[in-house]
Each structure stands twice: as C-alpha cells, then as structure tokens.
Amino acid sequence: WALYRGDAWVREYKIPTPGSVVSTNATDEEGYVWFTEGGWRGSAGGNKIGRLDPKTGAVEEFDLPYENSQPLGMIRGKDDSLWFALVTGARVCRVLPRDPKSDQKLAKGR
User: Fold this and answer.
1) Residue 46 has what pLDDT?
2) Are 54 and 61 a contacting pair, CB within 8 Å?
C-alpha cells in the first residue's frame, strides 16, 4: 500500500516472515531490491536475505545456512554480485542475483 507523506508518496511492502527486521538493502542491475532480514537485538528474526520486485511487489526470501546468523549490510560489487555480512560467525557472503541458489558454497562462507 502507499501513503502520502508531505510532498511524496511512499509505498510499503510486506515482508512474509513474521519477526523479520529489514536492516539494509541494495539494488541489482535489473532493478530488484535485495535486503537482509535479521532479528531485533539478537533474536533470530528472519535469518534470510530477500529480493523484492518493485514492479509487482513480489518478495522472494532465501534462508541462510547458519542459525541466528544476523545478516547485516549489503553492497553491490562491480560484477553485480551482492555482498553482505553475517554478524554471528564473522562471515562475509556473496549472492549472484541472476541465480541466487547456485552460489550456496559462497553463501556458506567458503
């Protein structure tokens, strides 16, 4: 849904996982918005990363392979890969937006 705030419209999108806290986001070359889903003050929350299609509002979520990993921060690399950190476990992870499920070994921090 959208609401009017002063001189601009703001559209909000619902995240499917209850208790998730979206902390950071980045866009890929196709315009999808990627985001991290952690918890609040150490709770597991979503423990996922997600992808939003702003044209349709569809959200797809990807589970992380570590319990309560607290994903945080997200930047886009020169090759269009997305990088983020797992606070618990001290890992830096990469996702390939074109095929996020194919990069599982990198998502596991290897």
Assistant:
1) 77
2) no
CA separation, residue 11 to residues 17, 77, 92, 100 (Å): 19, 27, 31, 26
Burial letters for 34-50: b for 16+ Cβ neighbours within 10 Å, e otherwise?
A: bbbbbbeeeeebbbbbb
Amino acid at 68: N
CA-to-CA distance for 64 and 74, rounded, in angstroms?
Answer: 14
Alpha carbon distance 40, 17 (integer Å): 13
DSSP string, the chain: -EEEETTEEEE----SSTT-EEEEEEE-TTSPEEEEEE-STT--TT-EEEEE-TTT--EEEEE-SSTT--EEEEEE-TTS-EEEEETTTTEEEEE-TT-GGGGHHHHTT-
What is the pLDDT at residue 109?
Answer: 47
Residues in contact with 60: Cβ distance below 8 Å, sequence separation at least 6, in sequence order: 50, 51
Residues of the chain under the 50 pLDDT cut: 104-110
